[in-house]
Amino acid sequence: LIQALFVLGMTADAKLANAPKLLRANKDEQQEWGRHSTTPRQRTATRDNGGHRALDSSSSSSAMSMPPIDEIEVVQWSSYALSSTCELKYRVNVPSDTNEEECIGCSVSMEVIHDGEAWLGIAFSTNGRMVGSEAVIGTPGDTLEDGLVQKYDLNSKWSSRALRAMDAQTLTEASIEVVDGQTIMKFTKLLKEPGEIEILPTGDNILLYARGYGPSLGYHAKRKSFGLNLM
Q1: Positive or negative, the Cα torsion across 49, 53, 57, 58?
Q2: How far apart are alpha carbons 53 and 201 in whole angstroms?
Q3: Regarding beta strands 172-179 and 148-154, do their DSSP bridges make them parallel or antiparallel, or are they unpaired?
Q4: Are 148 and 141 in contact (CB under 8 A)?
Q5: pLDDT digit string (tens) for 135-194?
Q6: Contact between 170 and 189 (Cβ < 8 Å)
Q7: Is 0.70 topped by the overall pTM?
Q8: CA 144, 145, 151: angle at the middle one, nearest 5?
Q9: Which of 2, 138, 192, 214 keeps 20 to 30 A from 17, CA to CA?
């Protein structure tokens, strides 16, 4: 009996001595598993207040966080270099009751990001010329609330008559502000509005870009026309 107890005691001491090694081995196995089982990034659709779908890239921690199949949207943010100091980001918002081909009630969200402090403008045109185009122009203020983003008709090259604010100010999520030395203008506009130049979801659109020397609206320091396929 005494000999049996002695053997059991030796066995228990051996297990205790090996316990740190076992725990360390389990931890190493978990780390190795983690390196080979990284959850892929999923593009999921979220809804804004207007019922539109917009993409957000996030890591899904489990299958339960995957959205329903009918809410997954392929349209995502794209970018275009307007100049060495300015970038345009854009995406098409597709309502849940239509598709990309018909695109009834679709809108486009745009962000213009400029390294510096200046007024910014994006215009939609039929021929690449300023006169006859329809612009979205933003002038930053001291605060986000002071900034102004509106739709304008471009009637003339002369500054006193060039701009006329449109009667129908239908932009949503419109803002302009200066953050860490960058001027950022954001807005969402319907692709098709009565009496306005239609923006095509597919195919080339003719756009104009301009920015000022400073935040006060005046003559442009930089301008260009370019073609853009939104999708």
Answers
A1: positive
A2: 15
A3: unpaired
A4: yes
A5: 999 999 988 889 999 999 998 765 656 788 999 999 999 999 999 999 999 999 999 999
A6: yes
A7: no
A8: 95
A9: 2
